[in-house]
Every structure is written in structure tokens, then in C-alpha cells.
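Backbones bend. Shown next:

***
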Amino acid sequence: VLTLEITDGDQIFYIDQEFSWGVLALNGDKTIYLPEEEAYLQMGVLDDAGHTICDAALDLTITDPQGGEVRLSTEEDTINYGNECAGDTYTTSPDYDATYTFEGGVGVYRMRLTATTVNGVHTIEDEFRVAETVSFDVSRTGPTRIFPPEAYPVRITVTANEAYTGEIIEFVPVSFQITESNKPFRTYEVGDTKQ
């Protein structure tokens, strides 16, 4: 806990800030899916010192727009342990993964991921959206967690479902270092996939 003492004239204010434990990550290969599409979900767990945890018990509850729930877990083998997880190492494979098919119709799907480790129980929440159609189908393939000294490949695949001329821009944190791709740009037709 960090305690700040702030003086404003004759008044003194105290603010306590508690910092979160480690990292619990849940990434889908997309942020917008189509009905009946299968999502590839990738998870990672770090302790409070930033070290990779490969043996966490994970429990993921997915709530569809109608309120129906599906539970995935490592206990029931519906969340898989990654075969390349080996502590603080370089890998492009997720430490944990699962698949889920969006059968509950169009709308927002809420996800609640809980990790139980020797450090305790920790939970995050996230959501994905299912739309009837999308103008551009965008999927990302990259690491779920990184070992900071290493560089990692990230592939962004864009499928245009309507005619478009212009730039496609991906925003990343300012601290990211991007290296140039040696793949040339070219023109694609509607329905083609560009990677």
C-alpha cells in the first residue's frame, strides 16, 4: 500500500493506493465475433513479482446476452495447460488456452476469470461482442504474456467484407517498439484476407 500525504493550505489529505497482485490475462483472438463463431481464448498468470505461474487452477465463467452461463476450467480439462510454459521464458504459445463458441446470439458476452495459486485467489473480468455482421474481420495472433528482453512476432489478419480504400491503423502503447515488416503492400479484393 502506498500512502500519499497531500497538503492544501491548512488541510492535509491522505490517499491510500493498493497495488494489484501480479497479472491475470485473458485474450481472445478477436474483440468482435460473429454468431456461432469459435473464439480461441488465451490466458496467462504472473505472481506479484512478475514471474510466470504455470500450474494455476483457472476457472472461467462466460455469460451470454440472455444470461446463460458456461463454465470452463483447468479442473474439468476445458482450459488446457500450455505445453511450453516453463517459468520466465520466451514462448509464443499461451500458458493456458480454451475455445468457446458464441451460441447465445448477438450482444455482449461477459467473462470472469479466476486464478487460484499459492499466492491466493484473484479474478478479472472482460467482455467480447458478437455482431450480426462486421465490415472488417480482424484477428490477432501473438503472445499472451511476454518475457520483456525478447522480441515477439504479432500477426494481424484483416478480411474486408466490403469495399474500402485507405489506411488501416493499429494503436499500441507508446512504450512498444515496432520493427518493420519485409512484406510488401498490395491491393486485395472484397473477401480476400490480408496478413
User: Anything to note?
Assistant: Residues 140 and 195 are 10 Å apart (CA to CA). The first strand starts at residue 2 and ends at 8. The chain has no helices and 14 strands. The mean pLDDT is 85.
